[in-house]
UniProtKB/TrEMBL annotation:
Family membership noted in the UniProt record: Belongs to the short-chain dehydrogenases/reductases (SDR) family.
Keyword Cell membrane: no
Organism: Mycetocola lacteus
Protein name: Short chain dehydrogenase
Keyword terms, alphabetized: Oxidoreductase
């Protein structure tokens, strides 16, 4: 059976696809792939599940969050980040649960900003915290032994565009984050937030 990776074209997603492919068949998707998934159009999730399920596991390593000074963050900024990174992951779980095998799993992504903010991260910190809260709250309700965890990376070595904002933070190679994804998929734990690199 196949592991679905949403966000497979990103820095972390590419590393996760490489690590998972050593053990599983992997279907990697993003907005720019065929098939495509766009969290702002939830019907694309339904089409993906209808055409390609069942899955042994579903991994989400995508979604966008806004960065801006608190005084400039708009309601639209929050709504776009919630629609993409938060509701995108929530709806993946809600719409995907029926298409995941017994004993399968969901692995979501949050990030270090939940606990260690940087300038401009108020929305990102909040949205990542919401993802972690969803994992904790959803885990006991998933049926048929299906597990759910989040991987929460510190800043990734390859994501050089972020390094200026993350001065003094430990960095973690995307390949190491991918090992936490593999641990979530292959392991037994549920309702956990796996801190990758911090
Ligand atoms: N990189 C870091 O240092 C770091 C640290 C902590 C947490 N994170 C979190 O980890 C996740 C992945 O980060 P990354 O750096 O690997 O991201 P990235 O390189 O920017 O890639 C983002 C991925 O998400 C997909 N995506 C974006 N918007 C989407 C949408 N609306 N619907 C479906 N897919 C969408 C993209 O697909 P397309 O390319 O096809 O558009 C791409 O595959 C993000 O949630 C990020 O906040 C990253």
């Amino acid at each position: 059976m196949t592991v679905l990776v949403i966000g497979a074209t990103g820095e972390i997603g590419r590393a996760a696809v490489a690590a998972l492919s050593e053990h599983y068949d992997v279907l990697g998707v993003g907005r720019s792939t065929t098939p495509a998934v766009d969290f702002t159009r939830p019907e694309t999730l339904d089409a993906l599940f209808a055409d390609h399920a069942p899955f042994e596991a579903v991994v989400v390593l995508g979604g966008e969050i806004p960065f801006a000074p608190l005084s400039e963050l708009t309601r639209e900024n929050f709504e776009s980040g919630l629609a993409s990174k938060f509701l995108g992951q929530v709806e993946t779980v809600q719409r995907g649960t029926a298409h995941v095998a017994d004993g399968g799993s969901f692995t979501l992504v949050s990030g270090i900003l939940t606990d260690h903010p940087v300038a401009g991260s108020a929305a990102a910190s909040a949205i990542n915290s919401a993802v972690n809260g969803f994992v904790v709250g959803a885990a006991p309700e998933l049926p048929r032994g299906i597990r759910i965890n989040a991987v929460s990376p510190t800043v990734v070595t390859e994501s050089v565009q972020y390094h200026g904002a993350f001065r003094g933070f430990a960095q973690v190679p995307a390949a190491e984050v991918a090992q936490w994804v593999l641990r979530s998929v292959a392991g037994e734990q549920t309702g956990q937030i796996f801190r990758a690199g911090w």
